[in-house]
From TrEMBL:
InterPro entries linked to this entry: 6-hairpin_glycosidase_sf, 6hp_glycosidase-like_sf, GH116_catalytic, GH116_N, Non-lysos_glucosylceramidase
Pfam family, one: DUF608
Record-annotated Glycosyl-hydrolase family 116 catalytic region domain positions: 506-784
Name the record gives this protein: Glycosyl-hydrolase family 116 catalytic region domain-containing protein
Ranges of residues in domain Glycosyl-hydrolase family 116 N-terminal: 77-397
Amino acid sequence: MKNNLPRRHFLKNAGILTAGLSLVRFPVLGKSLWQHQTPWHNIPLNKNIDKNWLESLYERGEPGRYLKSRNELKYIGMPAGGLHTGTVYVGGDGRLWLWQVYNETMESVHEGISPQTVDWNDGTRLQKIRSRDGAAYVEPVIADNMRVLEQGFAISVKHGEKIWIKELKESDWDEIVFEPSYPTALVRYSSKDFPVEVLLKIYTPYIPLDAANSSLPATILRVEVKNTMDVTLDIALTGWLENGANKLSALPGKGKKRCRTFAKEGHTALFFDYLTQDPILQTATDAGSMCLSFHGDYATVNTSLTPWPVTAVCFEKEDTAVAELDAPQNQVGGITIKKQIAAGTSLQADFSIAWHFNNPHPKLKQLVKEAAGGYYYGARFKDALAVGEYLASHFRQLTTATELWQQTWNDASLPHWLLERTFINIGTLATANTYRFADGRFWAWEGVGACAGTCTHVWQYAQAMARIFPELERELRERVDLGAGFEADTGAIIFRAENENRPAIDGQAGTILRFYREHQMSANHSFLKRNWPRIKKATQFLLAQDKNGDGMTDTPMENTLDAVWDGEISWIVGLCIAAACAAQAMAEELGDHAFAATCANYVQKGSRNMETQLFNGEYFIHKPDPVKGRKNLGSYNTCHIDQVYGQSWAFQVGLPRILAKEKTVSALRALWKYNFTMDVGPYIKTHTGGRPYAVAGEGGMIMNTNPLNEPKPYGENVTWQLGYFHECMTGFEHQVAAHMMAEGLVDESLVLTRVIHDRYHPSKRNPFNEIECSDHYARAMASYGTFINACGFQYHGPRGYIGFAPRLQPENFKCAFTAAEGWGSYQQVKNTNGQEHTLQVLFGKLKLQEIQMEQIKGVSASSVKVMLNGVTVPARYAIAEGNIHISLKKETQIQTAGKLEIIIV
């Protein structure tokens, strides 16, 4: 996290210690009025949660549907392009907007989806809020205000002499329904005065475990027109696109916009570029090309649609193969298809839009040397036409796999809203927040255009990318954490690689845990073996930060709250214990028994001392440095959101418990009691200085609260970072929700996740953009951890191990799963005879040797039968502590379309 514009003055100017406010509203604590005035803890213990509403959170429900008639469309912006190819949004009415593909997104130049500054009243005064301070939360960007390029569709319907024409835009239809299911969206259009119904499906090729085909700079738009009349209709459908080449930089008299036609069987394309001899314009960040394609036969083209906007003339005119216009003029080209459709039948048309802008911002090239070579997509394709041709050649394969994943994810027993919220944040990878350079290196901001360097102490919260595109995380571990950001002599991992010069203690620990996760999401031991010497060195550096040898790190070092805290801090101590536990597991797998013993000793001491010294009987605290005391900023006796984060991480990778369940659950209940509220309004009004990531009337979990009402609870010398303590940041909230789910606090987990979901309801702001220090903040991908724990999912690829222990409806449960080499669907059902479990591989393959599931209540489990595609597989089983562990007598592979069935009676 980073907040430095100008962050040193942020809290002072925000009135953190506003004398007048404190004098009027709060009693004086201590002898000095100015020094000790502290707002009382005012989060209600009674959460006033409606029982019926709570019960509804468990229901399967219906997929999200957002309607024009409910004024729910204007803020919607779902990422609709490939990974790391810039931000292209699809709006609530199906039109594409934002077009943040021009490489202008850059810290201090163009931060966020819009570099706006807005006014926000925090309850005490009016503040100026910028992108990294939550501007898009206070005043969400409206799609109609950011339509950089002309793009859209129009439909002409003719019957006899009667002609109807409508564009696919909000103002033309009685009702529009937006149905999101990332990575796809379906938009339905209807009007009582129009003789057809229209559906528009928007997505980019998106295939888990296939990062290359999920990284195309393109959007697919599938239009379906249904004849609802009892007569045959003549249909004409036109899709259009503006030439976006040099959209920002083009100058009158310096060049010409050009549109050319290309056609072959099954593919008709309009290719847009910009002709110029000016070397500055040739290398501008927006220099490049675009392509509008129709993937089918019998289309007509128009390289310069006029008149504009669209009229009946546009459906009839076919012009020459090349059009050129001077820079000041908009150049819009269109592709039209025509067909007669009989009563009750439909027309389906597949279009795509591709872009190619391979000139990274000059400042980005200064931040990371690999940027000089351009982007991953730029190395694969010479221009946007090549992207369109690749789509045309692989269209069926790409669309089928994408739709199969979307169907698999949603064909589940979990509530639709929970599936949506836990997966939605992986859309961050398809925004200008992330880059993949020509040589394959992954690099990212924390939030769009803010805080450089794929920061370890932020990205380590994110659980989604490792499960959906594990190759990206493995590449990041090897190329950056053990490469550009690694100090070979000390083992320190620089937390922003070449964009910093020091490690962060939580980033170091979280990255060691990520090494274990990336090993688990590998097919074999090769990743771990080739990286073990440096992983071991990084762990040795971590262990060395425990100066007094009690298993609790006590070296002051940077952390994710942008500060250096003194003493022994529960959330950092626990995270380091979990990292040591992960290192122990890796060492044991590789036969490094001496180092495994070293780690085990650290874990044992650390866990014991954390529980005895940092647990206050209700929650875990921050023990001050014995010399400095509470001189500097810290959480001390307050209730901190990450206090048991190490145990939370342990659940994500199937480690043994590092903290006793009783104390851990007590800490989580304390967070619920003292930090969670269904309305943050009263709290943020009295505890000022934080950024507005949740506002009055909205629920959330506050970062750090002072239940004991201590004076100076956060130390003697308060610094600007104190503002973080009074905020609601979704990445941290998702981490707690995931942990609550794992510990069986299912009500609390669902409520916490749902209030986040409701904060981002499209009637209020963009549901696809969880904000923290700029837009599409990476930490929010912690939400996937809640899905992992709701499924009770565990996986270890090299061992051939998979396990499930659902926390919701275990008697009839179904979910998607991803593994090292394949993905598919898992289902378990309790029936009159016992319980049945099914693993079906739908993409790739799954290697198995061990399987574990929970014994469902009421099932005796006296026999276990395993079958692969109907053939019995020899296996042994054992039952312990309610878990059924199955060992296959030999390694078994389930291929695509294969099914493994387990029958327990």
